[in-house]
Amino acid sequence: MHRKMVVIFGASNILWMVFAASQAFKIEIFPESKIIAQIGDTVSLTCSTTGCEFPTFSWRTQIDSPLNAKVRSEGTSSTLTMDPVGFGNEHSYLCTATCPSGKQEKEIKVEIYSFPEDPEIRLSGLPEVGKPVTVTCLVPNVYPFDRLEMHLLKGDHLMKSHEFLDPMDKQSLETKSLEVTFTPTNEDIGKTLVCQAKLHVYEIDVKPKERETTKKLEVYISPKNTVISVNPSTRLQEGDSVTMTCFSEGLPAPQILWSKTLDNGNLQVISENATLTLIAMRMEDSGIYVCEGVNLAGRDRTQVELIVQEKLFTVEVSPGPRIAAQIGDSVVLTCRVMGCESPSFSWRTQIDSPLSGKVRSEGTTSMLTLSPVSFENEHSYLCIVTCGRKKLEKEIKVDLYSFPRDPEIEMSDLLVDGNSVTVSCKVPDVYPFDRLEIELLKGESIMKNKNFLDDEDNKSLETKSLEMVFIPSTEDTGKVLVCQAKLHIDEMEFEPKQRQSTQTLYVNVAPRDTTILVSPSSILEEGSSVNMTCSSSGLPAPKILWWRLQNDRDPQLLSENTTLTLISTKIEDSGIYVCEGINQAGTSRKEVELIIQGRENNKDYFSPELLVLYCASSLIIPAIGMIIYFARKANMKGSYSLVEAQKSKV
Q1: How many CB atoms sit inside 10 A of residue 114's CB?
Q2: Which of 92, 119, 156, 271 has the most CB within a 10 Å radius?
Q3: Is the separation of the CB atoms in 431 and 388 below 8 Å?
Q4: What is the pTM of this model?
């Protein structure tokens, strides 16, 4: 059988050699004859041979110009890579393959083009109804442009087309354009401008031969027919209100601008809404108001004159007749006059003390700024307004308070189960403290509250506190301690009258019930091992430390694990071992004495391990002898049967 396989294998080798010798030397190139490449792309030409095991390749152009490409040859193929493709690659390339049996060449022609972007549509200006505008279609970076064709359409209507058949003087990227001038009409609104560009390179397979750009035609109409409506009338009295509405036609809808004509004839823009409302009018509001409709195509305006007649004046103060001000804040008291063109202002306190503030008057408004507010500002302020021969005054009372921060909860010590602790709730920088109430709660139950009703001897910021002693238990863990502070000032509108702070209770339990479990025993023979396990209860769970007491020396730290293991103990390992449970609430200790005894010298010692080894050897040695005996007997007979061997022995 083996000899037959050798004969078959030799025959197959001879047939393969005959087949290989019959393969003629050939050269092929891919792509086969011609390629159209986009400028800027990457193109690879591959030349390969058959019938030649180790060919030699070379590349050149038909006119022996530079390759402008990289060559990589490997085995029976060679690749010419142009990256990126440029004008220097527009050639016929020749690949030459040389073998011992001869030399062959293959040619491929590379043509290039550039058609990278869609056309651009540009307008010479805004397309306004009735006014000529020029639309331009641009095709950038095209080559060869003598094969370019362009069409410009408005909707489905062809406005202009052109074929660029002029001969090219040189190889270059050109931007070609097509222009049309037309006059937009109302019918053009919503139509689309379309620019189509075609490059007649029929061999293009991947890149488009046709590109198109569209642009919606936005036709504008300049504002016109601008009108104003006035309600209730153009003649008004001081304090009245008037609403003026303006409308203007145009496309897109014009933006409305309201202006007032100043004394020097200039216009001052006062609104950009179609409706202008003037309230609480004064005599100086009289004048000419101009409405102007504006869009990108132009503007159109019209105007109206308002006449405001004199009216008896009134005085108003804000924020109101009474204000509660936070110490340290800024407060502005405003006095405003209605019905007087040129009022004069003055401010004073009701007891003629210093103002302790800054006054700023402008037009019909005067403002007294108190910044920062202090105890010197707790007064009744009067605003006096003089208009001609008439005089009016208004009063504003300023009450002070200080309630800037939430209460602060403090504990005298760590919360430990069964240990008394003092909790305090502090309210800092409060005024007036005779209106302060503090309440301390645990969960929803009130622990203590206090009203500070003592008379104030002087004006000052005070820190008030509420203290109480309680004994926490583990049942308090998770409950919320709440400190509420209330300042009973009814005039406060913006600042909170009530502040509170919360703190979640976490009650610790000092370590206790510390125990030690020794396995197998605290009295051992030398060489034995022992495990000592310590446990201690507490909250949070105590950390376990193992110490060994030493005579005349500090204790020795042995371990921070729950279990302390000693292996192969010695007599010197005897001593006092201490387990200590520690947490932030305290410590708990437990001691154990470990005694290591020496072995007796006259006592025969057999370890269990030696006994097992002795028994095993007494069984293994006879078994090995029997195996050797039966193996030799089997070699003599040529075969062996354990059953037959047993029978023969019998």
Answers
A1: 21
A2: 119
A3: no
A4: 0.42
